[in-house]
Amino acid sequence: MGELAADKHVKYIISVEKKKDSFESVVMEHLRLNGAYWGLTTLDILGKLDAVDEEDVISWILKCQDESGGFAGNIGHDPHVLYTLSAVQVLALFDKVDILDADKVSNYIVGLQNEDGSFSGDIWGEVDTRFSYIAICCLSILQRLDKINVDKAVEYIVSCKNLDGGFGCTPGGESHAGQIFCCVGALAIAGALHHVDKDLLGWWLCERQVKSGGLNGRPEKLPDVCYSWWVLSSLIMIDRVHWINKDKLVKFILDCQDMENGGISDRPDDAVDVFHTYFGVAGLSLLEYPGLKPIDPAYALPVDVVNRIFFSKK
Amino acid sequence: MSTRENSYTEAEALNLLAQLERILDLDPLIDEVGFIHPSQFATLKEEIGDSLSLEDRVHESTSFWIRDHKLGISTQILIPVYKAAKHAFISALRQYKTPGNFSGKSQDDTLAIEVMIHSKALLLLSCDFATAWNSRKLIVSNKRLLPILMDELHLSALVLSYSPKSEQAWSHRRWVINMIARNCSTLQWIIERESELVEKIAERSKMNYRAWNHRCWLVSFMTREQVLDELKKSRNWSGLHVADNSCFHYRRRLMLRNLEGFCYTQDNNSSGYFVETYQIWKEELDWNESLIKQYVGREALWLHRRFLSMYLIKHMATHLLAVSCQSKPKASVDIDIDSLMDHELCLVHSCSTTIADANFEDFQAQAIHSAAYMLWLTKQIPEYQGIDIQEKLRAGVGDVTRMLKRSCPDRSSLWDYLVGYHSEP
Known about the structure:
Distance between the termini of chain B: 67 Å
Order of helices and strands of chain A: HHHHHHHHHHHHEEHH
Organism (chain A): Citrus sinensis
Largest sheet of chain B: 3 strands, mixed
Number of strands of chain B: 3
Number of strands of chain A: 2
Protein name (chain A): Geranylgeranyl transferase type-2 subunit beta 1
Strand content of chain B: under 5%
Keywords (chain A): Transferase
Distance between the termini of chain A: 45 Å
Oligomer: heterodimer
Strand order of the largest sheet of chain A: 1-2
Strand content of chain A: under 5%
Number of helices of chain A: 14
Protein name (chain B): Protein prenylyltransferase superfamily protein
Structural class of chain B: mainly alpha
């Protein structure tokens, strides 16, 4: 089996951080905060978070905060829960969550809960179970989960459960591994995993493994490294990870590396990007690949970061 | 990417932006945008649009190409034009939002127009630039006129022509439709058109989750007639795309929606409704079977069957009991669970005994899918349906397990678990 080219990946991430003028970087600038989360969490898993300037990162993040309390993807853009979660997660990596006015950020999120328990992504109203996960995860890290109607939030997520045991974006939406991760993660954090039919969902999830050992996100689709995270973390949360072949998955992820320039791609021999680099490394961490910090499947942050949030502050 | 993008001065970039905005203004019917490598522009040079002035043509031949409402943009200018568009947009938006500028209606309109023009150009270059979509929502929500809302649908469709997975473009459509639903009566017609748009996009962009999710979202706006109509209309397309799980999920959504309607109908017509619904289900099962036999080893077809059988047995059987107890049985439908199960078992056996040769991947897949389907059935049958069926299923399980573990060893733990579950008393 191949090896994880950890040093190359660290170099790759740092180079992406610096290369702000490439076309790819430029058209993604509205979601730079997500990129920061993917890049920095990967560095932390690889034990190299100190390779970046903490001050620089944090001061930039704070500039992304809008007066509503929410965060935008970059300075001057509109706020959205997607970036608000990334902001809080990145600050958690640096153990600096307390520089935030937790009430201000929480109020932004609380204001986005709808009557049926669902969450909108921003003031424009789009509803998606991803936003339910974001709200619950973010408020949990800020220790303000009691500010929303958790029962209603859970009720809405459960209403998005399909007959195959999976979950979609909204009620009646097709089951998708990414949405499933969000719903299962949200239910896990909210202490409501009993709503999940673990055998049924576990079955659907393990059917995502294809012959090459990689995982896809839905039936008949090609395998993609990012599903190594979403499918795997879901299986771990419902305690069914022994239903897939872990060794083959490790091999698949390692085959997706660019051994020369660093970075990981969606499948072998494709172009790399930070998004897939994060999911590949995070997936390997879940598979207990040696030399990596363990990562929490629900919070998608290193376990020591999560412990620091909940066990050292009271 | 070459570094020539960086050699454009600010003035040149602004000029390019002005050209782009001029083109968009001159031809509001543009319905497709593409990004062309500079080397391909040479071949297109001869085919310059004839609606443009001579001096424009000199510039446009290297950066823009337009014909038959199709717009091509050179990849070489993308970064400079993007930067110019972004700056223009942000500046216009800032002015629009500044409180002092709302003094007179005409001034307000001018600023709004600026934002709309620049945001449009920006979105063609960076279609998920949410702040730009939001600014349009802000301006449009002050107007709420149908033609303006339709324009937003048009822009979104233009973006989807080259970026069919753009989350922001789909989300913008839903926002617009919600606005229309509140104010206008043309909703049903718009829903129909939306459904057709998704099918068109799905043809080019297979199993596009966002597109199909949008189509599923539309179902909650549909009347029962529309739901049944959609089922009929989308059938042929589904039959030609048997590997597309999303289109079968859409059919399930429609069928469930139809069933929901039945649950709430407790009147004299309920048994007629029931018969019709049962027939739809039965037809779908028969059609699914013919596809399974024709297209060997297609996972999506078997997953669809799981749903159909399970629902038929679990829910429709219950309803038959309920209906016949309440009134004189008008229904001439006979749901015999035993014969249904027999039929399914026969189907599974016929698929398992086809050539299990390792070279024929499709046949092997067929055997695996049918075996997994059998396990699914054994899991779904409630106990009260009769010992006889359980016996038949259990008899088949032994062979199934052996075959599954041989062909699909990665899931051994799952097969063991599922089979072990059913050998418990």
